[in-house]
Amino acid sequence: MTIGILGGGQLGYMLALAGYPLGLHFRFLDPSPEAPVGRIATRITADFTDRAALKKFAQGLALVTYEFENVPVEAARFLAERVPVLPPPAALEAAQDRLTEKRLFQKLGIATTEFALVENSDRLDAAVKQVGLPAVLKTCRMGYDGKGQWTLRTAGDIARAKAEMQTEKPLVGKPRRASPNSEAAKFIVERFVPFSRELSVLAVRGKTGETAVYPLVENHHRGGILRLSLAPAPRLDSQIQHLAEDAAKRVLRELEYVGVLAIEFFEHGGRLLANEMAPRVHNSGHWTIEGAVTSQFENHLRAVTGLPLGSTSAIGCSAMLNLIGDVPNSAEVLSIRDSHLHLYGKSARAGRKLGHVTLRANSPEQLATRLGELPSSFHRSEFCLDSALRMQTASRA
Ligand code: AMP
Prior knowledge:
Layout: E1 2-6, H1 10-19, E2 25-30, E3 42-45, H2 51-58, E4 63-66, H3 73-80, H4 89-96, H5 98-107, E5 115-118, H6 124-131, E6 135-139, E7 149-152, H7 155-165, E8 187-191, E9 197-205, E10 211-213, E11 217-222, E12 225-231, H8 238-254, E13 259-268, E14 271-278, H9 288-291, H10 296-304, E15 317-324, H11 330-334, E16 339-343, E17 353-361, H12 364-372, H13 385-396
Parallel strand pairs: 1-2, 1-4, 2-3
Antiparallel strand pairs: 5-8, 6-7, 6-8, 9-10, 9-11, 9-13, 11-12, 12-15, 13-14, 15-17, 16-17
Helix pairs in contact: 1-10, 3-4, 4-5, 12-13
Adenosine monophosphate binds next to strand 14.
């Protein structure tokens, strides 16, 4: 059985690696000739809007899935006329626009950050007045890793944001994957949440409606980019896990979803506020390769191919560290007991995710010790290690 995957980055790479033991074959479509999956699978290099390429891509495939949530919805719908596309294109549509996404959360009774639509820069003052300062202004579409965002604390920040809003285009995503568009961008402004921490939930739904949810993950970002995930999230209150599971199941049911879905939350004052969702496997789920009975990648493939889902239980505790911009010495990383190194085969560039390291342990104490053994190339502040370890220590006190 050959599965087509839209997008050929590291998520696709790890999907294929999880699929080969299941006897699956893969074909990728990605606009970039540099897409790392070229090393391990057939890759068609073409724009997502190239219909002739999409037709060629679809030939003989059992189904199509995606590893990139900004695949144009029209491309997914075009393919869906020829071959099953899972998760359904409606999930892509819901997740691509922050406004649609927030309205979906609201409709399903999932608490979210307070927000207001900002149609253009003239409307910014009124929208900020509605939500209050500090606030975060975001483009509705194509924001990723903190791009297309402005934190507003002062009148000066608002004035600067207004000037920049006028030049912002709606499609400002990774150039290799998106084409420019001349329409004016839409924005939302959100109340700034002084959260105690960021958490994400990964859930999977099979073709029969069966669902399974992984334990919540605690995520540490720096510069808008995920640096460190701890799983299961330390100091996890069962009520919070329940709230996250309930939210994920509502979204899965509503969208008649098949595959893995991620939702990112802010934990604040004993509540969970949904920030955004991704209709795909997710960076905060990489720990599941070694840290869970069944990885998110395998479970996504089990779901879309109609196989029974695997257990989402954690095996001990894990920490996942993203390697951004450069990679450490492999031998130093692997000298730490129960460490695992994943390199994606991408060329080094500042701010680029090149790989990740997962450390596994049997207890939070052992995990803290192993994190402390990381070589000095793991600059502690860059990986948010000090704050994560402080939080872990607080949980044991
Ligand atoms: P996003 O692209 O929405 O995931 O935002 C990237 C990161 O910016 C989040 O992971 C948070 O660390 C921070 N952030 C986004 N929105 C807010 C908000 N409303 N309040 C506080 N921090 C935020």
